[in-house]
C-alpha cells in the first residue's frame, strides 16, 4: 500500500526558512512524479512545485527563487526547502505522487494528510 507522510511544518517569521519532507512508502519514488500543494483558509488548493520521474522541475510563480523542491530516490523522500518565507505562504502543505504531474491535486493517485506552515510578519 502506497502512503505519503509529510513532516517539517511549523511556525516561522517572515524572511525565515522551513524544510518540509514527504516520505513515500510502498513504492519507489523514482517512478513517480511528486509534488507539493498548499491550501490556505478560504482558498483553493494550489500547486507549489513538482518534479517528475525524469527530474524535470516546475514551480509556481509565487515561489520561484524562494522554494526548492528535491527528490531523494535512495530514501524515497521528497523535500521542499522554503526560504524568504512570507505571511502569504501560510497554508496547509500537501505532498502528492502519481505516474504523471498534474495541475490539480485530486488528479494524483496518492496524497498526504498535510503539514501546517504558519508565517508571521
Please give a structural write-up.
The structure is a single chain. By secondary structure, the protein is mainly β. The chain is 0% helix and 50% strand. It is built from no helices and eleven strands. It has strands at 3-7, 10-13, 18-25, 33-39, 46-51, 57-59, 67-72, 77-82, 91-98, 110-111, 115-120. The strands form two sheets. Strands 2, 4, 5, 6, 9, 10 and 11 form a seven-stranded mixed sheet that branches. The radius of gyration is 13 Å and the shape is globular.
TL;DR of this structure?
The chain has 121 residues and is an all-beta fold. It is built from no helices and eleven strands. Helices cover 0% and strands 50% of the residues.
Shape: globular
The structure class reads mainly beta
- Main beta sheet: strand number and arrangement? 7 strands, mixed
Give the C-alpha Rg.
13 Å
Our measurement of the CA-to-CA distance between the termini, rounded to an integer number of angstroms, reads 41 Å
Number of helices: 0
Low-pLDDT stretches are none
Order of helices and strands: EEEEEEEEEEE
Helix content: under 10%
Question: How many strand segments?
Answer: 11
What integer is the average pLDDT? 95
Strand content: over 45%
Break the fold down into its secondary structure elements and pairings:
Elements: E1 3-7, E2 10-13, E3 18-25, E4 33-39, E5 46-51, E6 57-59, E7 67-72, E8 77-82, E9 91-98, E10 110-111, E11 115-120
Parallel strand pairs: 2-11
Antiparallel strand pairs: 1-3, 3-8, 4-5, 4-9, 5-6, 7-8, 9-10, 9-11
Amino acid at each position: 500500500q502506497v502512503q505519503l507522510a509529510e513532516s517539517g511544518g511549523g511556525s516561522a517569521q517572515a524572511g525565515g526558512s522551513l524544510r518540509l519532507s514527504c516520505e513515500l512508502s510502498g513504492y519507489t519514488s523514482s517512478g513517480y512524479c511528486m509534488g507539493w500543494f498548499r491550501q490556505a483558509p478560504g482558498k483553493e488548493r494550489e500547486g507549489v512545485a513538482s518534479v517528475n520521474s525524469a527530474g524535470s522541475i516546475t514551480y509556481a510563480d509565487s515561489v520561484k527563487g524562494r522554494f526548492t523542491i528535491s527528490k531523494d530516490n535512495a530514501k524515497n523522500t521528497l523535500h521542499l526547502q522554503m526560504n524568504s518565507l512570507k505571511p502569504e505562504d501560510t497554508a496547509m502543505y500537501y505532498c502528492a505522487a502519481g505516474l504523471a504531474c498534474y495541475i490539480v491535486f485530486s488528479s494524483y493517485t496518492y496524497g498526504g494528510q498535510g503539514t501546517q506552515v504558519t508565517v508571521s510578519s
